[in-house]
Amino acid sequence: MLAEKGILTAEDLLYHFPFRYEDRQNPISLDELKPGDVASVIGEVRGSALLRTRRMPLFELTVGQGRHALKCVWFNAPYLSGKFQAGQTVAVYGKVEPSRSTSNLKMIQPQFEILPDASDDAQTQMLEVGRITPVYESLGGSRLASRWQRKVIFNLLESMRGTVPDCLPQSMLRRLDFPDRETALREAHFPPEGTPPAELQSFSTPAHRRLIFEEFFYLELGLELKRRRMKERKGIAFATNDKVREAIREVLPFHPTAAQKRALGEIVADMRAPSPMRRLLQGDVGSGKTIVAFQAMLVAMENGYQAALMAPTEILATQHFLAARKLLERSSRKPRIVLLTGSLDEDRKRTNRGLINRGDANLIIGTHALIEEKVEFDRLGLVVVDEQHRFGVLQRFKLMKKPNQPEPDVLVMTATPIPRTLALSLYGDLDLSTLDELPPGRMPIATRRVPGERSEEVWNFVRKQVAQGRQAYIVYPVIEGSKDDQPELDFSRDEPDAAARPAASAAGHRKTPKGKTAELFAASAQEASPSAKSGLKSAVEMHEKLRKGPFAGLRVGLLHGRLDADEKEVIMRRFQRGEIDVLVSTTVIEVGVDVANATVMVVEHAERFGLAQLHQLRGRVGRGAAKSYCILMTGERISDLGEERLNAMVSTQDGFELAETDLRQRGPGEFFGTRQAGLPEFRVADLLRDRQLLELAKHEAARFVEGPEPAVTEAERASVRTQLKQSWQRKYGLVEAG
Ligand code: ADP
Ligand code: MG
């Protein structure tokens, strides 16, 4: 059961921390509570009952304290019958709600623990009563409850007293005023009497801060070393002479912004250096990243090397391919541009692979197929890759070049802006360029929320825009039917029912384990809520409806992920040429699609979309000089988080600001897609909460590598190295491989 959680050693167990603490020294009194509080209450079991209602069985528990009482309710929880006996002492934790029937207060789905009584052993009593008690995520279903973990960890700490080696240098701990490792571990599990509850709540006790720092330090140290090692590797020193500059000038369709100039300058400086470039180019939607990438690719081509561009979707690859052809038409050199995506037919793939391998293709644009198709490039000089691919791909570039060739330069581009401090620290092995300016002449995109019932007005508006020669997108959350065929839309279930939310998330404890955690969490939110999916409009159905109804007489197109590549290409091309007025679509158009004449973006069921998605979708319009509009149509029920997303969209257009909100809502794991991407998941640290410690760790890691500091002994350096190896191999193995 421990292994399921990745706990294999005593050390792992010591780093398995409580996700919250209960102050059972000074338990809160019921008459201090008011609705809205999130609190832990200790009281006596007065009574309990399983009530069969029409919808589901409800379990009720009354917890008393003198003349006060608190009613606790769990949905769908027949398994709780017989669990409580009158007279027992229990601790319940949750959000306090007003109760209708009596003047009493109520908790819905609280976490609970039956406290030990005189019949329990002394250690159990000592660990659970009259102290600050750690609460652990239950493991193995509910079989390894908090109580079990407390004992095992307590005994482990006791048996190791005085023997836990530190993994940070003494001088560093002193300088930063952090406790040693053993003390930090002990106090994070069993906080000493008098530890301020607020510090525990926010994981900011000295013990926590040290452990969080430690975790970040090893991440940053690894990144720093990687970056330095890269600088020692042999790459290509591209030349940028007048000829190269002229080649760029002759194709540039507009004056670059100051930000574009600066970014290109940084990129070109890297390309001229003899070590391989590893750089991240980030910028808000529409800031003009593509043209910067094309310029860098021209530098590579002018030097006689091949350049490759890897896009996240076929649609985007195709669009880049078309754009490159148009852009480079004006080039006197007439480079040969080749498209390679998974759905090309075998003949064309074979031909293209041959062109690439013989060096007859200069600019290669594709999807992940560039790697999957095992193409061997003749002279690969520069790879531009979108961030989505980064983690799965960086280490595989080796496969793309011939064995005796130098390492290509790599430019990673992000579609989603990342708050700068996080980008700097988290992508510490990449250098960072940021486009913080939009091309001139952009007008703000008027953004409005409109309830679904007012769709007639929306369609009228779209018709008017089309009559003025403009084009529109209408986006739906699903392709067909109402099943979730776009798995990336995962917002359908947030806060299914405010009352049914597990209490811990209401308290903003993002450390709360996901899913059901048995004993402590009774029925999960999903079980308690009515089926979340119903009556979703889909792209296919609405395409039919709109085409025959409100948009009769207009040219209406349909685009979604299930069309094959040729069909997608045809539709995109027709839309680009203005041969389609209204494009009904799914989120396949989310990233990168660039049609300047499109001025209206309508999103139906907007409450279901993530903030990053909405921002990207809105970024599809406002690309030309004409006034553009984004209309967010909503269904009938909108969660609190959904409200916040929609309001954020209406109130700002700044992608970095929206990214902050998105990050806060979803948490870093979801935001960065770390689970798929192989980015680290932290044991104590939280990227959002602990950003300052991340900065500090980055700074300290650089200082450590810069070394040698006389205050740091050789033994300490050796121990840091050992720890680094261990933690990187285990936690960041994939990233390290690059
Ligand atoms: P993104 O950063 O979202 O990838 P794009 O590269 O697609 O942005 O650029 C957005 C639009 O702005 C494109 O139509 C592009 O041609 C145009 N553009 C980019 N740079 C400039 C510039 N310096 N001046 C005018 N238009 C520009
Ligand atoms: Mg270089």
Number of helices: 28
Computed CA radius of gyration, to the nearest angstrom = 29 Å
Mean pLDDT: 83
Bound molecules: adenosine-5'-diphosphate, magnesium ion
Q: What oligomeric assembly is this protein in?
A: single chain
Beta-strand proportion: 15-25%
**Within the CATH hierarchy, at the fold level, what is the topology of the largest domain?**
Rossmann fold
**Assigned CATH class of the largest domain:** Alpha Beta
Relative helix content: 25-40%
Q: Could you give me the name of the CATH homologous superfamily of the largest domain?
A: P-loop containing nucleotide triphosphate hydrolases
Distance linking N and C termini: 32 Å
| Annotation, overall tally of beta strands | 21
Could you say what the CATH architecture of the largest domain is? 3-Layer(aba) Sandwich
- Strand order in the largest sheet: 11-12-10-13-14-9-15
Shape: globular
Structural class: alpha/beta
Low-pLDDT residue intervals, each spanning 5 or more residues? 485-533, 734-738
What is the makeup of the main sheet? 7 strands, parallel
Q: How many domains would you count in the coordinates? A: 3
